[in-house]
Design a protein that fits this description.
The complex is a heterodimer of chains A (253) and B (324). Chain A is α/β, with parallel strands linked by helices. Chain A has one domain: Rossmann fold (3-Layer(aba) Sandwich), CATH 3.40.50.300. Chain A is built from nine helices and twelve strands. In chain A, the strands form three sheets. Chain A has a six-stranded mixed β-sheet with strand order 6-7-8-3-9-10, sandwiched between helices. In chain A, helix 4 packs across helix 5. Chain A starts with a strand and ends with a strand. The relative contact order of chain A is 0.18. Chain B is mainly alpha-helical and 324 residues long. Chain B is built from 14 helices and no strands. The longest helix of chain B has 36 residues. Chain B is globular, with a radius of gyration of 20 Å. Chain B starts with a helix and ends with a helix. The chains are: A alpha/beta (253), B mainly alpha (324). At the A-B interface, helix 2 and strand 6 of A face helix 9 and helix 10 of B.
Chain lengths: 253, 324
């Protein structure tokens, strides 16, 4: 089970070209995608899950081109935590989370006890079970974020794509979500996430993909990529760094 | 949600529907007792009672039921499609097309089936006009579809005013009645009723997919929903149901707006429950409204749309205030 990008160029309006990405996202690894605003991090995730067509190259799921994989299979294997909560119709937190079972359920059956148990466990895991009967649109940004992650946890895909999963989260819940992501990788799942927090990336990512303005990209083990010289060029921001418990720590200079 | 959670409210609504139909065929310019009504329905009763109920009141009440059910289901579908709880079946300009069709037929002196057929043609024309324009402009969003519909509706409104302004005076009352919803012409309930039953049967397996679509198109797409075909299916189905309803009874307002909204406040937003509940509750509401329209100022009859508006507006405002 794997997701691969094969000579993939994402389609950013107005951008002439870009480094073709040839990457394999193997089970057990956590990838962090870093880059300044508007560089195409979200677009890359949406291209990898098939929401947008690439400009060139292709995405392969289990060695099959993504458009040839049936929708339902795709939805069973790939999950995406969106950056912003979409404006949906009124629904409760539990109903929203249960939608994650959609790719697995037959259209002729109601949700099974197992579906319900998974949704409840996911809400429990993200610390939002007390909100289960609340309307989603009445929640705070951080609570919605956790409901979004709980929905994908209920979906239980092999490959997780997360668009800034720690947005709106308080420090404790940021760490809890990173702990969840590590445990997903330990179960053999692949995780790719866009991040803006260098310290979270340094602490929890195995591999890093850097996307530069203009379309260049480079990638490698976190330890090699997360060095001040490279990151200062990436963000155009001088940095200071030190090491703590074996992990690099960054601070804007 | 378990199956029993679905059945309990639906059985309750079905019981209410039967009660409303029973009351509706009993009451009118000549009131019958419940006993007389039941006698007729099981095959007995006097000839006069039989004619009154079986030939006059029952077809009209069933037409009212079908119209209300169709409008409420169409409203619920439009609301999911546009992800706007305040959308109604007419929001995309369909009623305007139907009205222009009907008024043109009346202007030409036609009556009965010709008016209905012309209204249906107008509704379809409007549907395809909005469909075509929204599609021609590339990727559509609910907002784009809504704006196209609103502009088309405004256009129809101008044409309607033109027809009303130039129509001979003797045709005006019939035209105005049609515009406010009129069940007195609807003698044959079966086409609308069968469309309602078939639509509910077809929509039931789509219920959970519609729940996912209600979470937003991108979310639905990553959960394996073929979003664009589903959206067109929902749009065309809602339009067809509305067209049949408008053809049966003219443009009856508020049913497609308030019934789904009230049901969601009472029962939650699971489409598997809401869609069949809309069919039953919308039908019941219009049967009651039509009964009132026939009896309040008897022997005069009011357009049923006046009654739905009089019931609908305060009920809607009350629910809206309470839901906060």
């Amino acid at each position: 089970m794997s997701l691969r990008a094969d000579e993939l160029v994402i389609d950013i309006p107005g951008r002439a070209s870009g480094t073709p990405l040839s990457l394999a996202f193997n089970g057990g690894e956590v990838w962090g995608i870093l880059g300044p605003n508007g560089v195409g991090k979200s677009t890359l995730l949406q291209t990898l899950i098939g929401l947008r067509p690439p400009r060139a190259g292709q995405v392969l799921l289990d060695d099959r081109p993504l458009p040839r994989v049936p929708r339902r299979t795709r939805a069973q294997r790939l999950g995406l935590v969106f950056q912003e909560h979409q404006d949906g119709f009124p629904a409760t937190v539990l109903e929203t989370t249960l939608a994650g079972r959609h790719p697995w359920a037959s259209p002729w059956r109601m949700e099974s006890a197992d579906d319900l148990a998974r949704a409840r466990a996911a809400l429990e895991r993200l610390d939002v079970m007390p909100l289960a009967d609340r309307q989603v649109h009445t929640l705070s940004g951080g609570e919605r974020r956790r409901v979004g992650i709980a929905t994908v946890l209920t979906q239980s895909p092999q490959v997780w794509l997360l668009d800034e999963p720690t947005n709106h989260l308080d420090l404790h819940h940021q760490v809890a979500v990173m702990g969840l992501i590590r445990s997903l990788a330990e179960e053999g799942r692949s995780v790719l996430m866009c991040l803006h927090d260098l310290n979270l990336a340094a602490r929890w990512c195995d591999r890093i993909l850097l996307l530069f303005p203009g379309g260049d990209a480079c990638w490698g083990p976190a330890r090699d990529m997360l060095v001040p010289a490279v990151l200062e060029g990436l963000y155009g921001q001088p940095l200071r760094s030190t090491e703590l418990d074996g992990y690099p720590v960054f601070m804007p200079a | 949600m378990a199956v029993s959670d679905l059945l309990r409210p639906l059985l309750l609504l079905a019981a209410l529907s039967l009660l409303a139909l029973l009351a509706s065929v009993s009451l009118g310019s000549a009131d019958l007792s419940l006993g007389q009504t039941l006698q007729v329905l099981v095959g007995g009763g006097s000839d006069l009672d039989r004619t009154l109920i079986l030939d006059l009141r029952l077809p009209r009440s069933l037409s009212a039921f079908a119209t209300g059910g169709l409008l409420a289901v169409a409203g619920a579908l439009m609301q999911v499609l546009l992800r706007n709880p305040l959308a109604d079946p007419y929001v995309l300009g369909l009623s305007g097309g139907a009205a222009v069709g009907a008024l043109l037929a009346m202007l030409a002196g036609a009556a009965g089936v010709l008016v209905s057929g012309s209204a249906f043609a107008g509704a379809l024309l409007s549907t395809f006009l909005v469909f075509g324009l929204a599609r021609a402009t590339g990727a559509w969003t609910p907002a784009r579809l809504l704006l196209t519909g609103v502009v088309i509706a405004a256009g129809w409104g101008a044409v309607m005013t033109l027809i009303l302004a130039t129509a001979p005076g003797r045709r005006l009352p019939g035209m105005l009645y049609w515009l406010m919803g009129d069940l007195s012409q609807s003698g044959r309930p079966w086409p609308a009723l069968s469309v309602l039953v078939v639509a509910c049967a077809l929509l039931l397996p789509l219920g959970r997919t519609l729940n996912v679509l209600a979470r937003g198109t991108a979310q639905a797409a990553v959960l394996g929903v073929a979003v664009r075909p589903l959206e067109w299916l929902v749009y065309l189905t809602a339009s067809a149901l509305t067209a049949v309803a408008v053809t049966t009874a003219g443009t009856v307002g508020f049913v497609g707006l308030i019934v789904p909204h009230m049901l969601r406040l009472a029962l939650g937003s699971d489409q598997r429950l809401i869609l069949p509940a809309c069919a039953l509750a919308g039908g019941t509401l219009l049967v009651v409204a039509d009964m009132l329209a026939r009896t309040v100022v008897a022997p005069e009859q009011l357009p049923v749309g006046v009654i739905t508006a009089l019931i609908g507006v305060p009920a809607f405002l009350f629910l809206l205030a309470r839901s906060r």
